[in-house]
Design brief:
The chain is mainly alpha-helical and about 90 residues long. It has two helices and no strands. It has one domain. It is elongated and about 85 Å long.
Length: about 90
């Protein structure tokens, strides 16, 4: 990304923060800082939960696929030529 555009975005972000702080009495700036900090922590926890959830889905999918491959191997190893069919 162009560094000039990045600098402008960061400057705009700082102006937005100042505008929000200007809406409240000066005594509330400490509260706003705590809210901002908590919101950042909450967003990070949300991202972690989403990643864990997605990883869990991937693990389950891989486990299911491995199970199907194992079942196929077991079915093809039968000596009398019959196959076991898994109906799930």
């Amino acid at each position: 990304m162009n560094t000039e555009i990045l600098e402008r975005i960061l400057t705009a972000k700082e102006y937005q923060k100042k505008a929000i702080y200007a809406l409240f009495p000066e005594e509330m700036s400490g509260h706003l800082e705590v809210i901002e900090k908590e919101f950042k922590i909450m967003a990070a926890e949300l991202v972690k939960a989403c990643v864990r959830n997605e990883q869990s889905k991937t693990d389950k999918r891989e486990s299911r696929e491995n199970s199907r491959v194992d079942n196929h191997r077991q079915n093809s190893d039968r000596q009398n030529g019959t196959r076991k069919i898994d109906i799930t």
